[in-house]
TrEMBL record:
<dbReference type="GO" id="GO:0006096">
    <property type="term" value="P:glycolytic process"/>
</dbReference>
<comment type="pathway">
    <text>Carbohydrate degradation; glycolysis; D-glyceraldehyde 3-phosphate and glycerone phosphate from D-glucose: step 4/4.</text>
</comment>
<keyword id="KW-0704">Schiff base</keyword>
<dbReference type="InterPro" id="IPR013785">
    <property type="entry name" value="Aldolase_TIM"/>
</dbReference>
<dbReference type="InterPro" id="IPR000741">
    <property type="entry name" value="FBA_I"/>
</dbReference>
<protein>
    <recommendedName>
        <fullName>Fructose-bisphosphate aldolase</fullName>
        <ecNumber>4.1.2.13</ecNumber>
    </recommendedName>
</protein>
<dbReference type="InterPro" id="IPR029768">
    <property type="entry name" value="Aldolase_I_AS"/>
</dbReference>
<dbReference type="Pfam" id="PF00274">
    <property type="entry name" value="Glycolytic"/>
</dbReference>
<dbReference type="GO" id="GO:0004332">
    <property type="term" value="F:fructose-bisphosphate aldolase activity"/>
</dbReference>
<keyword id="KW-0324">Glycolysis</keyword>
<comment type="similarity">
    <text>Belongs to the class I fructose-bisphosphate aldolase family.</text>
</comment>
<keyword id="KW-0456">Lyase</keyword>
Amino acid sequence: SVRCWMPHQYPTLSAEQKKELQDIARRIVAPGKGILAADESVGSMAKRLNHIGVENTEENRRLYRQILFSADERIDGCIGGVIFFHETLYQNADDGTPFVKMIKDRGITVGIKVDKGVVPLAGTNAETTTQGLDGLSERCAQYKKDGADFAKWRCVLKISTTTPSQLSMTENANVLARYASICQQNGIVPIIEPEILPDGDHDLKRCQYVTEKVLAAVYKALSDHHVYLEGTLLKPNMVTPGHSCPIKYSPEEIAMATVTALRRTVPPAIAGVTFLSGGQSEEEASVNLNAINNCPLVKPWPLTFSYGRALQASALNAWRGQKENASAATEEFIKRAEINGLAAQGKYTGGSESSGAAGKSLYVANHAY
Ligand code: 13P
């Protein structure tokens, strides 16, 4: 019958638009490269800065981002993209150079956080969806003009005996797909982030099960919304035991659970997987990423990092708001970037850092950006 369920897909993106999206996505996750997530909202920066005794002012946020963005050419081989927060996209270095120009001149791709944070899903056990679709197309068009080529949108899911509910999985998958579709229409590569929080005492198997269900729902929604997968990146949690799970697992077990979950649910067509660090210590996040890349299963996508806390904790600690510490802080960031660049290729042989700041857990209960 002519009224078949899906006669064809109406035209969405031209061949040129698709090529541009795929080229951007591939550049970000070129071998040995990952993403610096420096897109903490003003509220998240308050937590980071208060922790080191620094007041959360616009100028202090600018000074801190300058520490990260002034890293030298050593990061060119290991950082493919930097995610900005709106405020940072329009800030300049001390010498007046726009941060966006500093990053782009290095051949690093600029990204922008475009979601507007989580809101409660009424009638659920404290589950959430993420808002920010209104006006998103116009914002994406402006950000593209202002130098951004990719975006991030974070959804949050929780593991407990009653969650994630079917509602939260369906709703968050759909809102991620709407966001992705809008980004692609504006030449922006969407990073799809369905973060499953590490809170809870569940074991590795339960996290793997939930991750598979969440990712399956996400890719069904992306298909329904005609999203061009080659022009997307996935930013998932690693499959780990809950933070208060009494059982300890090796990096190899975490890697096997993670790659198994991804292989079961994530199409080979996507450009890459860029894990969030989710409160793991800097060293844990590097060792686990390395193990993931050495996991003895076929892995059809680049598997790399898009770390916030696990690229910045030592740098923040070294800085403490003191001008004379700025270059030492930059060195700490470069060190983590280089280590993660190795881990993204399965070539990190370290693991000796567990005693210092790098080994400190960065876990925060019910973490919000
Ligand atoms: P973490 O690596 O600190 O989890 O943050 C990454 C991120 O951008 C979450 O949205």
